[in-house]
């Protein structure tokens, strides 16, 4: 199987970079083909501009311009190259340090530029279906916080809550199966022994990358939502917030 390993950290000697190297080694040892997009090393520009769409004229309507560029093959070469990597991949591993409750801007900008209309959205199908259906997505996050504080009753909230825009609003929206994210806490205080254990945890997750059960987000067309895209009263009655849209959430 083919994996696109998408990573974002500015320091080659960081724990994130160490885990990327160890993870890619483990994935290849399992027989997988791994393609890398190390965004900082690539000098990736995260900003969407009209230059992404060479045939664009007049007022920039990003959705329409990107859709036309995708359909005609007239899109910025670096964006096209990343789209090709993504389309070839059977799974996506997205690795980053948690900054201000989200990924670094350079990574958000990868999704902004790569998942254009017709690829990431605008296909008529979403939330469990779409152009990227059949692919899996594993998120590997290093965080300075203690693991106990990133839990349902921890001050930071659970990682699946923190990463809702990525897990549900990006992966699942485009059809990918979102896997439970892997958290490596206390990243700035970790020693060599614990870094080795973190690499082992990552290798274990990679061994089940194509077999583990994904997060049980409710699909848009599965019958749980009414015509206004609101949960029917009998679905998760009394539940509100993010967990109501996850059939497997622990309550």
From TrEMBL:
Keywords assigned by UniProt, alphabetized: Oxidoreductase
Statement: the UniProt record of this protein carries the keyword Cell membrane: no
Domain Flavodoxin-like fold: start-end pairs: 1-202
A GO term for molecular function: NAD(P)H dehydrogenase (quinone) activity
Gene3D superfamilies, alphabetized: 3.40.50.360
Transmembrane segments: none
UniProt superkingdom: Bacteria
GO cellular component, one term: cytosol
Family note: Belongs to the NAD(P)H dehydrogenase (quinone) family.
Record protein name field: NAD(P)H-dependent oxidoreductase
Provenance organism: Streptomyces genisteinicus
